Amino acid sequence: MRFIGNRNPHYKTLIHRCERNPILTSDDWPYPINTVFNAGATLLADGTTLLLCRVEDRRGISHLCAARSQNGVTDWKIDPQPTFFPDPKNWPEELWGIEDPRITYLEDLETYAVVYTSYSRGGPGVSLALTKDFKKFERYGVIMPPEDKDAALLPRKIGDCWALVHRPVTSLLGAHMWISYSPDLRHWGSHRLILEARRGAWWDANKIGLSPPPILTSEGWLMLYHGVRQTASGALYRLGLALFDEHSPEKCLLRSDEWIFRPEEDYELAGDVGNVIFPCGYTLGPDGDTIRLYYGAADTCIALATASIQEMLAWLHEFGRPPNG
Ligand code: BMA
Questions:
Q1: Is the CB–ligand 1 distance for residue 276 below 6 Å?
Q2: pLDDT-derived band at 9, boundaries 50, 70, 90
Q3: Sheet of 138-144: strands edge to edge?
Q4: 1 has a pLDDT exceeding 70
Q5: Pocket lining: 273 vs ligand 1, CB cutoff 6 Å
Q6: Most buried of 58, 124, 142, 190 (most Cβ within 10 A)?
Q7: Closest to 294 (Cα-Cα) out of 220, 213, 217, 216
Q8: pTM of the model
Q9: Average pLDDT for 12-38
Q10: How far apart are CA 319 and CA 323, in angstroms?
């Protein structure tokens, strides 16, 4: 299979795929699974890359499993058993599994926050767990009730509060990106709509959601977000960029009109859900500029791409504009 028209020279390539893609598939798993995709990512203190992978079993239920690598590309050491498994007896919101984790290191608390989708009888909601070692997890339970997903914490407080970007869905309003604040990670308020899905023919009409956790840059919070467009042959997932004020992250400074990354390669076009690229995590390289973006491809495997923060910001200045501007 070859995607026609993916080499148009008039567009700058901002996201560069790794030649070894896909970097993790179900064949690599030490126990029986259906698929592995949509992984959260972080660099541990010793430089190890840790991916917290969404693993789907043959029932259709997802859990999380840690994979560690010294170079972030090859030689993954995968936990021999599920690392973080749904516990619906104690946490009924996890009845149909836990999905799409986003990891943020909270320096103030010296702990990692894992924000994930808990798939409950009432639909997907947002749950939080804290961990220091990705072995023991302290659950905080549901922090945003259904229907809500695509959530991540900012790594530091804004004023006195933690900030969570998330994507609630309501039948009247639709599926847009919001921010909420909390003094203690348990009680959430000051909810604000920060970025709206566009409408009609736009690539990000219908639904949008945060992809990896927001990236702090010299110009504010850079958010890579996915836009979903419904087409006659199903949903198309593509990525765009938006920049938010560092001190008031509810304020969008610039938003791209055009998408920057779309499914093109075989492993992105075909799988359990074809035409999907879905990044949930990134790590920052030693140059302070290159990010490694880990993304689920076609809900079937995990792939890797790199991008330069400075190039993305420069592109946003050239081709982005203030929302409603
Ligand atoms: C979204 C999420 C993702 C998934 C994508 C494509 O709504 O459920 O986990 O990768 O759909 O199926």
A1: yes
A2: confident
A3: 98-106, 111-120, 123-131, 138-144
A4: no
A5: yes
A6: 124
A7: 213
A8: 0.97
A9: 97
A10: 12
